[in-house]
Amino acid sequence: MKLRLPHHCHTASAPVLALEVTEGNSVSLSCRYPVKRSELSRVCWGRGCGTLWCSEVLVQTDEGAVVSKVSDRYRIAGDVLLGQVDLVIPNVNRMDSGSYCCRVDIEGYFNDKKVSYTLRVVKGK
């Protein structure tokens, strides 16, 4: 498995983590956030961060449980109640290359936590 460690590319709003993975391997994109038990958060993973929610939602949770996902191919790892909602993509292919965003809905205006990745899938040798 060839997996390069993330490096940061900075944008105006938040850093974008760049990952490179070899075709056929699995990748886990990490998303962690602080949790207040009285205020469980909604979380989404998508192919980008939209203005109010994820763009092209892949998986979303609501107060501790997955409520929707576009495919069984994507899964959540970690514990939503403990503030860890990693996106796992098995058997990646070139079509998986591109942008990914984890967005945690935090009460109030413009408080959402966002973690963005650029995934590059390269051909195996």
TrEMBL record:
Residues 6-116 form the Ig-like domain. Pfam families: V-set. InterPro entries: Ig-like_dom, Ig-like_dom_sf, Ig-like_fold, Ig_sub, Ig_V-set. Gene3D superfamilies: Immunoglobulins. One of its GO terms (molecular function) is phosphatidylserine binding. SMART domains: IG (SM00409). GO terms for biological process: apoptotic cell clearance; cytoskeletal rearrangement involved in phagocytosis, engulfment. This is Ig-like domain-containing protein. It comes from Aldrovandia affinis.
